[in-house]
Write a structure and sequence with these properties.
358 residues, alpha+beta, Uridine Diphospho-n-acetylenolpyruvylglucosamine Reductase, domain 2, Uridine Diphospho-n-acetylenolpyruvylglucosamine Reductase, domain 1, 4-stranded mixed sheet, disordered N terminus
Length: 358
């Protein structure tokens, strides 16, 4: 059964700058230069895609050479060749048509709330997409919840609890969207998306098709899935259990309190590295003596070692350089190889712990 799309409650190689696929590198620890990147130039294709989309999804919903890094919680990084805001499946279909006609093969990036992204200072040569209000509805149907991919996880958690449903309380402390949570199988406090996901509906920006798939088909694993960069999660159906509203509210209050006590605020993207089996990345980084270690405008949090804080007006290159240093030091100290949980966007070489740039 396909989940409904919910109404809200209230010659491309020459035209886009170098968007070739990059080979997987043998040595993933790369420290890029730290100087700021020059202001990107709007390519002919980016301008053409922007003009075409302005006529279909609206001029206010699309821009070229758009700031992208500031849409992430790191608030560092460069621009996107094109940024489009989609409020409906029709808008996504228009983005597909414009991109495939004007710049076939162009890379896509779904931004979500930007809480797990690091954008290169050089920016992203492709079409970045944000989901608008049309994808934020949350509907309760018995013991199931259907949420638009743009809905914030804490909102879904609180609405589920208020409806007397239990099993999604963990998400109250995750500052991401439903779509992003499906894409990376987000989780915390002993649970994750796979535990409650019945199915998710995705739109394919390459061919304009949709599919509705369960967690096995989506390949949900520890902080990963097989959702492709050109697929947009548009909604998710969750199976929860009958619960007690007051108990859920207390559990969520405890989770929020724990996060405030143990994790930093400010400019970061949450956990930088996935936890090795049987251990935690934060403990390993702390044991290597790296809390408070700084490279340029990036610093290992003194509150939680698996968080990197970026300074205002900081550089993504400094964050990556610090990641590389962490990977090397933990390898030397504990013999453990850390792997990035953060999605690296626009980098032409693989970042520390990342298999390939995206």
């Amino acid at each position: 059964m396909s989940d409904p799309v919910l109404e809200p409650e209230t010659e491309s190689e020459d035209e886009f700058e170098e968007f070739e696929e990059f080979e997987e590198l043998e040595d993933p620890v790369v420290v890029p230069p730290v100087e700021a990147a020059p202001e990107p130039v709007v390519s002919a294709a980016a301008a053409a895609v922007t003009l075409a989309l302005g006529k279909t999804i609206g001029e206010d919903a699309v821009s070229s050479n758009a700031p992208l890094g500031e849409l992430t919680t790191y608030r560092v990084g460069g621009h996107a060749s094109v940024l489009a805001i989609a409020d409906s499946l029709e808008d996504l279909a228009e983005i597909h048509r414009a991109a495939s006609t004007i710049a076939p093969g162009v890379p896509f990036l779904v931004v979500g709330l930007g809480s797990n992204l690091l954008v290169a200072d050089e920016g992203f040569s492709g079409v970045a997409i944000q989901l608008g209000e049309g994808f934020t509805a949350v509907v309760v149907e018995g013991n199931q919840v259907i949420a638009g991919a743009g809905a914030k996880l804490p909102v879904v958690a609180r609405k589920s609890g208020a409806a007397g449903l239990s099993g999604f309380e963990w998400a109250v402390g995750v500052p991401g969207s439903v779509g992003g949570a499906v894409r990376m199988n987000a989780g915390g406090h002993g649970s994750d998306m796979r535990e409650s996901l019945v199915s998710a509906t995705l739109f394919n920006l390459r061919d304009g098709s949709t599919r509705t798939s369960g967690p096995d088909e989506l390949g949900l694993g520890y902080r990963c899935s097989n959702v492709a960069a050109h697929e947009v999660v548009v909604s998710a159906r969750l199976q929860l259990s009958p619960g007690d509203e007051s108990a859920s509210k207390k559990q969520m209050t405890d989770i929020v309190r724990w996060r405030l006590m143990n994790q930093p605020g400010g400019q970061n993207a949450g956990s930088v590295f996935t936890n090795p089996e049987g251990d935690s990345a934060g403990r390993l980084i702390d044991a290597a003596g790296l809390k408070g270690h700084r490279i340029g405008t990036a610093e290992v949090s003194t509150k939680h070692a698996n968080f990197i804080q970026a300074d205002p007006d900081g550089l993504a290159a400094d964050v990556v350089a610090l990641m590389a240093h962490i990977v090397a030091e933990v390898r030397s100290h504990a013999g453990v190889e850390l792997h990035a949980e953060t999605r690296m966007v626009g980098f032409k070489k693989a970042a520390p712990g990342d298999k390939k740039p995206r």
